[in-house]
Structures are given as C-alpha cells and as structure tokens.
Amino acid sequence: MSVTVPTPLDVATRALQPATGLGNTFRARYQQGIRTSPMNPHTRLVALTLASLASDTGEIPSAAQPGMSGLADATGLPLRQVVVQVRTLQTRGWLTGEWTRRNAARFQLALPLYVRSRLT
Fold this sequence. Notes:
By secondary structure, the protein is mainly α.
C-alpha cells in the first residue's frame, strides 16, 4: 500500500477552496475576514461593496449583480482597477463567478478555508 504525499501545490490549492455551510453567519464572517486581511485597500473596497449586495449566506441575487461597470460606479475606482481587484479576489479564493469585461454572469462570495479556520 503506497501513501501519496501531497505536494506544496496540492496543499495550497486545498487552502483556497471556498468554504460553505456557514448559513446565516457567512456574510459577517466574510466581512470580518476581509477587514482583517492584509489585502490592499482597493481590493477590500471591492470585496466589501460586493458583500453589501449579498444575502447573509453570501449569495448575490440576480437582481443585485452589479457587473464590472456597476462595481466601478459603486466604488469610484476606474474599470480597469475593478477588473484587477476582482481577479485578485478570485485568485485568493474570496469570490467565485464567471464574468465578462463589463458584466458579471454570477458573483458569489467565498470564504477560503484558511480564513474560515482562523475565524472559528
């Protein structure tokens, strides 16, 4: 019987998997995680703006989906800067969803496992 030892990439990938199952406390934990994160202020601004549109479970309803241009308007950041911040949030495991340059098909807040374990 052989034991597979995970590589550093395996461990890092697992740590970025979005956490689910927090129920009505999700948005509060998301906001707390964003506020205490070492992310730059523009990334935090975009994340907290999206959190303000989300339900307590982290889902952003279809009617409230802002799109990239809506996020730019809501944050006061240039559209290109919003695109960079959304990509940063997705890469770090804080946001899921498919989007085009100007409109989001579906944004969903996510809480990386490493943050979830820190907040519980």
